[in-house]
Specification:
The complex is a heterotrimer. By secondary structure, chain A is mainly α. Helices cover 67% and strands 5% of the residues of chain A. Chain A folds into 3 domains: 35 residues; 221 residues, MetI-like fold (Orthogonal Bundle); 176 residues, no CATH class. By secondary structure, chain B is an all-alpha fold. In chain B, α5 runs antiparallel to α6 and α7 packs antiparallel against α14. The two termini of chain B are 51 Å apart. Chain C has 10 helices and 10 strands. In chain C, α4 packs across α5. Chain C is 38% helix and 24% strand. Classes of the chains: A mainly alpha, B mainly alpha, C alpha/beta. At the A-B interface, α1, α3, α4, α9 and α14 of A face α2, α7, α8, α9 and α13 of B.
């Protein structure tokens, strides 16, 4: 095939058969003829078969009434809906599960990838065992496990498990409280989005000023000090309120508020690491006591609390070393400020305009739950399976990406005096991300393609609704399968377009 | 400079053992588990997690499990672990599916042949590679087909509907890989070709199959393949799945092989051409042997993916390992609270053993090829 | 950093412990040992470097030369003895390590430029984020040093577009931008093609002429002769012999040194 490259201009006396260009053309004509012939044979056969079965072709069936039920749709669905609406419903369900799955898979995957590189032997071993177990077991088997063995083995509706925050779990899925925002709440939501944008803008602006002038602007520093005090008060209040759950007497808001104010005062003295450490210990202690209590319900409470206390103290010790004694100055990024803007302003607005976000908890009636939102077990199992499975692959990509940055880069950054945070932010992460992003995108695509396995556990995604039910009812095999494939082909093309763009953008310039 | 610079060492400083911080299990723990407060915290969290996760897992799999020989009543006891007795009782079904019991010797011979051929094939130092490969890729599939299918030499005919379990899982993945290797190589060569029509066709073929999920390919194979055939032809259900799996995996294999072709230094192509070898001779004698050797780990990884993917054929109604386990889990005779979980754990374990062993092999091979390359 | 006169030498550093006058002694290594797990790589290293001194460390590969200078800005940690740089003793304390690294520049065998940043960005990264120097000023300084290493026209290229010699000169300029008082060179010319060695050595010589305190691990004996005021020979993790270059090359004392020199000089 690649014969033309040997010789440039054809020498005069070559027989036509030995002319590489001519041979190339002959090869191609032969292959093309074979392919076309094969295609024609298939089309002919198909036409004959369809004629024998008295079937017609065409996409007009899309505008007919579907007449079947879909257990879970993102828009109102009834038996009178049309087939193209079934197509859209399936597509949306595919996208829904892909988006949620990608979100969790990314978080778990990055955590595991970093954990696997940890210098802590135990942590890296646990991560390795997870990855080696999960990625060597077929996804479909894992989905069956989550769906049939875990979720379907949950108690019947009447004996539902009650989780915190009014969440119930039973055979029919997970029941969560339904948020009921009132009219004013929309403004809080708008404010939240605006504040998020504002916080990012503040961060970018402050960083730019920092590079241009060598220090953060004084207005930002002042605001950051205020923000620090407010955040300290909020966290201090939270800490005491939480402690009140375990040690009664601290529970009164008055006590908590006064104690939090004392902490704020301390945070303005050189003893500020102790205030921060205390808050961190207290919150960790209560959260750990609660979690461990749930995990080890056979162990006496006092022992659990003792272990939780030790964890809390360890976190406090850690924070003591992390928090600098100096208050916010012009050389430190004002972390508290964006946090306060994003959380604080919408909260104040919420309180000022009297908006209300009520939650309608699911309530157990005689046979089923009333109210709340029901997450179908199919969706839950699919999200679980896809995120856990894909995370194992993402973790390997993350690990590879970080390892691809040579140790010399870290050493060079160290020898220039860059602190760990700056080292990661300016040198390591930008280089690692170039390596991680392309395989990460293909993992996202894989996850989206794998969501088609939802069909096997009855989640109404594209393959289930369209290639399954619709095809069965209409018998339009060719049209339905072609449409389904076109959808996945589009996903794939979009992904590779993104990857080409990204690779072109970040490619290292070489000679 | 007032200092006298001259210095000559009079006596050598002997090597002495490192001070306390290196060596010894306690010191090892200090370094790897408790080196900083953060480290200690993570270790504690890790230990708590293991304390929470391992005992129930142990109790389920071994501690409270009902071992082979137990009865279904034991499995129904409150708090009983895995019902291994059930796996033991249904073991043949998981391995052979509905294959007639008196004919088990036939798949058994196939299993033995498979082991006898594949082990030396995977050992880089074993002799007779060419004959071995010929036997494995050509003779073994043909012999196995007649053995399993029967209908010749007085062997009873066993329709593919009766095939099942691990046997079918292995058949699909092996046929898939054996057929997709030549197809994949051709596609990879085509994609590298300078002839525009051939290149375009190959790119289209590869990218189309790689873009769509296997499940749609299987649907297509099982529904559309009969439509494509001349009227009146019936295509065996297993064969349809095999066609789908082969087309699908050949596209992935083509990309792996292409990686090997691209990794070859340009000089190899030129050296081949300068010797006056034509395209096919050059490819066969010079390019492929080198390229294929380098992509062995990649091919094994493809095979792992394919092996896991074969579980999808259960969706189009073929009784592979997963499907036998799945259908047995509604077996009333062994109905117990842990029946389904036990089945899944068993199937997961079987898949895991195969995939893990293959991935270790591929890693080992990769390292071996790496060092071989440097020398 | 301004140049410091080399006047009195504090003889009794060891007895007075940390009371080192900041002005005279740049680096003081006292009874230092280092192990890689059980392998004793550095044994009883005693080395006092005065301000403005230029030291060349030579020795066979695996003798611990690189490890020694990597210990001086704590890319490696030592297990026994003391390393005091500019009056700051190196311990596990991160703040001290940062303080020392800010004052000590290091040039690596494989340059270790940041491939995702332009030359100019490579040079201004640390001044901006470590020293808090305004960007414009950092860029002016960077251009100054790029001119000094004679490649100002490459400022907006990426490291991958430069030759090895150019990359190494950029790496030197990158360290200089932090205005270090001490420069460490870890075999700066070993990874270069022969014709590029000269351009890098020229930059190092001009640095030496300006009175920079330097420790160079190198096999360039010509450079040692011309520039160093002390040559140290190391083998098996210990200092075997040290002397001024003239005596070191013309009159080596230790057998091991003689053998080494006979093999490396012709």
């Amino acid at each position: 095939m690649a014969v033309q490259d040997n010789i440039g201009g054809a020498p005069p006396r070559t027989s036509l058969l030995n002319d590489p260009v001519f041979r190339g053309i002959i090869y191609q004509v032969l292959v093309a003829a074979a392919v076309i012939g094969f295609a024609a044979w298939i089309v002919l056969n198909t036409a004959q078969n369809l004629a024998m079965q008295n079937k017609t072709t065409g996409f007009d069936f899309l505008f007919r009434t579907a007449g079947f039920d879909i257990s879970f749709t993102l828009f109102p669905w009834s038996r009178t809906s049309l087939y193209w609406q079934a197509f859209v419903a399936g597509l949306l369900n595919t996208l829904l599960v892909a988006v949620i799955g990608i979100f969790f898979a990314t978080i778990i995957g990055f955590t595991l990838g970093i954990a696997r590189l940890s210098s802590n032997w135990l942590i890296s071993r646990v991560a390795t065992v997870y990855i080696e177990t999960i990625r060597n077991i077929p996804l479909l088997l894992q989905l069956f496990f989550w769906y049939f063995a875990v979720l379907k083995a949950m108690p019947a509706v009447r004996d539902s498990f009650l989780l915190p925050l009014g969440i119930y779990i039973n055979q029919r899925g997970i029941m969560v409280p339904k948020p009921l925002p009132d009219h004013e709440f929309i403004w809080v939501a708008v404010a939240f989005v605006l504040c998020l944008v504002a916080a990012i803008a503040i961060g970018v602006w402050a960083t730019r000023q920092r590079t241009l002038t060598g220090h953060y602007p004084s207005s930002i520093v002042l605001a950051a000090r205020v923000a620090n005090a407010v955040v300290m008060f909020a966290l201090g209040y939270l800490a005491f309120a939480l402690l009140g759950q375990i040690i009664p007497g601290l529970a009164t808001p008055m006590v908590a508020a006064i104690a939090a104010l004392v902490l704020v005062a301390i945070s303005f003295t050189p003893y500020r690491p102790y205030a921060g450490a205390f808050v961190a210990s207290a919150i960790t202690f209560v959260v750990a006591a609660f979690l461990l209590g749930g995990m080890f319900n056979a162990v006496p409470t006092i022992a659990v609390q003792l272990v939780a206390l030790l964890i809390g103290l360890a976190v406090g010790w850690m924070m003591l070393e992390r928090i600098g004694t100096a208050p916010v100055d012009a050389s430190k990024f004002p972390t508290a400020l964006p946090i306060l803007v994003v959380v604080g302003i919408p909260l104040v607005l919420y309180w000022l305009i009297g908006a209300e976000l009520a939650f309608e908890p699911p309530v157990l009636q005689r046979f089923n739950f009333q109210g709340g939102v029901q997450l179908p077990p199919e969706l839950v199992a699919l999200v679980f399976g896809l995120s856990i499975y894909t995370a194992a692959f993402i973790a390997e990509n993350v690990r590879g990406g970080i390892r691809a940055v040579s140790h010399g880069q870290t050493e060079a950054a160290q020898s220039l005096g860059l602190k760990e945070g700056d080292r990661l932010r300016l040198v390591i992460v930008p280089q690692a991300m170039r390596v991680i992003v392309p395989p990460l995108t293909s993992q996202y695509l894989n996850l989206t393609k794998n969501s088609s396995l939802g069909a096997a556990i009855g989640y109404p995604e594209l393959v289930n609704v369209f290639t399954g039910t619709t095809l069965n009812q209409t018998g339009k095999a060719i049209e339905v399968i072609a449409l389904t494939m076109a959808v996945y082909l589009t996903f794939s093309l979009v992904t590779s377009a993104f990857m080409n763009w990204y690779n072109g953008r970040v490619a290292l310039v070489e000679r | 400079m007032t200092m006298d610079l001259g210095f000559v060492r009079k006596e050598f400083v002997p090597s002495k053992p490192a001070p306390g911080r290196t060596g010894g299990p306690i010191l090892w723990a200090q370094k790897n588990l408790f080196s900083t407060p953060t480290d200690t915290l993570f270790t504690v969290i890790g230990i708590l997690f293991l304390l929470w996760a391992v005992p129930p897992l142990y109790n389920f799999i071994i501690g409270h499990a009902v071992m082979p020989g137990g009865t279904v009543e034991d499995c129904r006891v409150e708090g009983a672990g895995a019902c291994w007795a059930y796996i033991y009782a249904r073991f043949n079904f998981f391995i052979y599916g509905f294959y007639p019991i008196q004919e088990y010797w036939r798949p058994n011979i196939v299993f033995v042949m498979l082991a006898a051929l594949i082990i030396p094939l995977l050992m880089p130092t074993a002799p007779f590679k060419r004959i071995n490969a010929l036997l494995f890729f050509v003779v073994f599939p043909v012999v196995s087909f007649y053995l399993l299918h029967g209908g010749v030499f007085g062997m009873r005919y066993v329709p593919t509907e009766q095939w099942g379990g691990l046997m079918v899982t292995l058949i699909i993945s092996l046929v898939g890989i054996i057929c997709s290797i030549p197809l994949g190589i051709l596609l990879a060569l085509g994609r590298q070709s300078k002839l525009p029509i051939i290149k375009t066709l190959c790119v289209l073929f590869i990218e189309l199959w790689r873009a769509v999920p296997l499940i749609t390919v299987l649907f297509m194979a099982s529904i559309m393949l009969p439509l494509f055939m001349p009227a009146g032809t019936t295509v065996d259900k297993l064969l349809r799945a095999l066609v789908g799996v082969t087309l699908f995996s050949s596209a992935y294999l083509a990309e792996t092989v292409r990686g090997g072709l691209q990794a070859l230094p340009r000089g190899q192509f030129e050296a081949g051409a300068s010797l006056g070898l034509g395209y096919w001779k050059r490819t066969y004698f010079i390019i492929l042997p080198q390229a294929l050797k380098h992509v062995i780990p990649g091919i094994v990884n493809n095979f792992i993916a394919l092996f896991k993917d074969t579980s999808l054929v259960s969706i189009v109604g073929i009784f592979d390992l997963l499907n036998t386990v799945q259908s047995a889990s509604s077996d009333i005779e062994w109905a117990s609270p842990t029946q389904a979980v036990t089945g899944y754990v068993f199937a997961a374990f079987v898949f895991w053993i195969f995939c893990f062993a293959m991935s270790r092999y591929s890693l080992w091979m990769e390292r071996r090829l790496d060092t071989g390359h440097k020398r | 950093m301004s140049q410091v006169s080399e006047t009195t030498v504090e003889r009794n550093i060891k007895t007075s412990g940390m009371q080192v006058s900041k002005t005279d002694v740049a680096i003081d290594v006292i009874g230092m040992h280092k192990w890689y797990s059980d392998f004793h790589v550095l044994r009883d290293i005693n080395l006092k470097v005065m301000r403005g001194e230029r030291i060349v460390i030579a020795g066979p590969s695996g003798s611990g030369k690189s490890t020694l200078i990597r210990c001086i800005n704590r890319l490696e940690e030592h297990q026994e003895g003391q390393i005091i740089v500019n009056g700051t003793e190196l311990t596990a304390d991160l703040k001290r390590i940062d303080d020392v690294r800010r004052e000590v520049g290091m040039v690596f065998q494989h340059f270790n430029l940041f491939p995702h940043l332009t030359i100019l960005q490579n040079l201004t990264l640390a001044p901006i984020w470590v020293r808090g120097i305004p960007k414009a000023e950092a860029e002016a300084t960077a251009m100054h040093y790029l001119e000094r290493v004679k490649i100002p026209e490459q400022a907006n290229k990426f490291p991958g577009q430069l030759s090895g010699g150019q990359q190494q000169r950029v790496a030197i300029a990158r360290s200089l931008c932090m205005k270090p008082s001490i420069m460490l060179f870890d075999e700066p010319t070993s990874a270069l093609d022969p014709e590029m060695v000269k351009e890098v050595l020229e930059v190092m010589i001009s640095l030496a002429e300006d009175g920079m305190t330097m420790i160079c691990v190198t096999h360039e004996m010509g450079f040692a002769r011309q520039v160093a005021n002390r040559v140290i020979f190391m083998d098996q993790g210990q200092i075997i012999e040290q002397n001024d270059p003239e005596n070191f090359f013309s009159n080596p004392q230790h057998e091991r040194t003689k053998l080494f020199l006979s093999q490396i000089l012709h």
